[in-house]
Amino acid sequence: MNEEDKSLSKEEQEAKDKGDRERETKEQAALPYTWKQELGDVDVVVPVPKGTRGRDLNVTIAKKKLAVGLKGKDRIMDGELCKEIKVEDSTWTLEDQEVVHIHLEKLNKQQWWENVLTHHPKIDTTKIQPENSKLSDLDGETRSMVEKMMFDQQQKQMGKPTSDEIKKMEALEKFKTAHPELDFSQAKIS
């Protein structure tokens, strides 16, 4: 939530959110494809002229690029993906000679995408409520444990300290401050 949102009343915030959702819905509806995502993958559906065959299509799926088009015609979609994917686990299929289904496996499975292609309108990922992830159904203790595990997993992926390592470092710093008479210069902390 940005600074200006904090000064709004509950009713004003709800009206702003509703307006944002409507704008977002219109922007997404104007795209030449539809898409949905889970934490681990993104599915894109691209309508093509009825009777299209697989050999009529030009589909490019790369680590950071996606393009779909009909041979000899302008591309339906073409651009840089907003995040990297696992190319070897990503696929496309033609269904009923009128729809191209593209399945993209996210490289970072702990992150929501704001858009598929970087030059397309973004969605507000803070408003995403996952359908199959029932984090909200968990009791407080279990939910906080799962959130801690997700945080630690993301920290490890980025090479940063986990929550337990952060707590240990903070406890050590408090101890050092409380006991300035002790010399820690030769200490090996594990």
From TrEMBL:
Record field: compositional bias (Basic and acidic residues): 1-27
Pfam families attached to this UniProt entry: CS
BP-aspect Gene Ontology terms: protein folding
Cellular localisation: Cytoplasm
Primary location recorded for the protein, binned into one broad class: cytoplasm
InterPro entries: CS_dom, HSP20-like_chaperone, NudC_fam
Residue ranges, annotated region (Disordered): 1-32
Domain CS: 28-117
Keywords: Cytoplasm
Stated role: Required for nuclear movement. May interact between microtubules and nuclei and/or may be involved in the generation of force used to move nuclei during interphase.
PANTHER family: NUCLEAR MIGRATION PROTEIN NUDC, NUCLEAR MOVEMENT PROTEIN NUDC
Name listed for the protein in its UniProt record: Nuclear movement protein nudC
Lineage, opening ranks: Eukaryota, Fungi, Dikarya, Basidiomycota, Agaricomycotina
